Amino acid sequence: MSPAPTTTRPSGVPATAAGLRATARILARTDAHGITRLPVLDGSGPFALRRTGFPGPQARVCMVGAMSAPLGGDRLAVEATAEAGASLHLTASAATVALPGRTGDAATYDVRLTVGDGARLDWLPEPLICAEGSDLWMTTTVELAPTARLVLREEQVLGRSGEHTGTLHSRLTVRRAGRTLLDQETAYGPGVPGWDTSAALGGHRALGQLLAVGPEFEDAEQRVRLLGGAAPERRDATGGQGVLAPLTGPAVLATAVAPDALRLRAVLDEAARSLPG
Amino acid sequence: MNRAALMVLADGRFPAGGHAHSGGAEAAVAAGRITDAASLEAFCRGRLHTAGLVAAGLAAAAAAGGDPLALDDVADARTPVPALRAAARRLGRQMMRAARAAWPSAELAALAAARPRGAHQPVVLGVAARAAGLTPLDAAYAAAYENVSGPATAVVRLLSLDPFDATAVLARLAGDLDRLAADAAAAGARFPTEGPHVLPAASAPLLDITAEQHAAWPVRLFAS
């Protein structure tokens, strides 16, 4: 296993926490007939991986939540690779709930996605919910070859219904052809200065992103699109709102905030519908 | 040590065009999120610890001698909406003109030639600080302070807020500014040898969303 990225992790997170350690590994490779095979499909601990659908150009895998995780002290990782020409579609059966552990240690969850030339990866997990008292450090690190395609959704919900949020530090880094396309850190919850303010969330408790990268965004004129209640014709501050905008590079990113997970998904689905293909 | 140059660089009257930008405050006032001194302070604290931290890290890294063109790319990767990238480059171009008049240097000239339409403002600010003989910590202070003084000044005009109250907001943020500038300077010093991942990348979703809303307004008082 390659070392987990440590970009934002404070020295306070112990290197040898007493919690669970688990890594799920998925490798997608295309065969001579253009069928995407899964020579590695290896779950453990909280990750049970189920292949769904029939063998074809795209392999579909669902992560079935076998237990509540991550608890404080746990160190979880997912490594998924779509080799050149392969197509891999990853979903989850349920939300991931970050919970406090017995020791008060932070939990870590590191996702590493690698997509080769001409390959496509869809990373569409269910929301991450930060339960009261939890403390999670998450990284999502994506490496894309020059002609790779990616669709990535990330949803974070701050607290279960009616409770305060735990603490979440999350960093999303996307590199394409050796250049950093997107680098973003989100930090919310107790101990994070300024997180619950009108500059960041405006009282909202769910936030998310939908990122699409691929050669089809290279030349096309990508215009900015306001989503949900942010759109001028639907000016409505009570629901979700967002924006879909081009990055510096062949990619578009939707950024959204909403009062809850349901209304967040509605905004991100609106963004997804306006993507090509 | 050259403290006086920092006062020139951080002076609100330094002719770098900042007065035309509200740092998202105009949109926040229109949405009812800033209505008084208390809500201005909350907005500024949120902006400081996100956009302000990123700007301070970039400025410190440039002042520490980090490659300004690489830092300009780093800034793009941390600015996911075009309205804010355009505002940062417009401000960078204006900062460049003022800085080259004040502290002519080969590094400023090279950056101006490589980015004729403007580099991201915090990067220009960092190179300007270097040309003025200032430290990465000085550059971080200037970037972070400007990040909150801009909205505070804008809200005085937008809401007819008492200037005494707006200044008190800035004074109450001084402790946060001290800690943040030190963190940003430490990160900036590591950039030349360790690369972009050591630089802060804190994001504020509402600032991104409302910046694009604001850019679509037909009539507005501030450019951003």
From TrEMBL, chain A:
Keyword match Chaperone: yes
Pfam families linked: UreD
Keywords for the protein's UniProt record, in alphabetical order: Chaperone, Cytoplasm, Nickel insertion
Gene Ontology, cellular component aspect: cytoplasm
Cell compartments where the protein resides: Cytoplasm
GO MF terms, alphabetically ordered: nickel cation binding
Role summary: Required for maturation of urease via the functional incorporation of the urease nickel metallocenter.
Assembly notes: UreD, UreF and UreG form a complex that acts as a GTP-hydrolysis-dependent molecular chaperone, activating the urease apoprotein by helping to assemble the nickel containing metallocenter of UreC. The UreE protein probably delivers the nickel.
Family: Belongs to the UreD family.
Protein name (Swiss-Prot/TrEMBL): Urease accessory protein UreD
Native organism: Streptomyces benahoarensis
UniProtKB/TrEMBL annotation, chain B:
Signal peptide: none
Function: Required for maturation of urease via the functional incorporation of the urease nickel metallocenter.
Subcellular location: Cytoplasm
Keywords on record: Chaperone, Cytoplasm, Nickel insertion
PANTHER family xref list: UREASE ACCESSORY PROTEIN F (PTHR33620:SF1)
Pfam families noted in UniProt: UreF (PF01730)
InterPro entries associated with the record: UreF (IPR002639), UreF_sf (IPR038277)
Protein name per its UniProtKB record: Urease accessory protein UreF
Gene Ontology terms for molecular function: nickel cation binding
Protein species of origin: Streptomyces benahoarensis
CC per GO annotation: cytoplasm
Protein family: Belongs to the UreF family.
Subunit structure as annotated in this protein's UniProt entry: UreD, UreF and UreG form a complex that acts as a GTP-hydrolysis-dependent molecular chaperone, activating the urease apoprotein by helping to assemble the nickel containing metallocenter of UreC. The UreE protein probably delivers the nickel.
Gene3D superfamilies xrefs: Urease accessory protein UreF
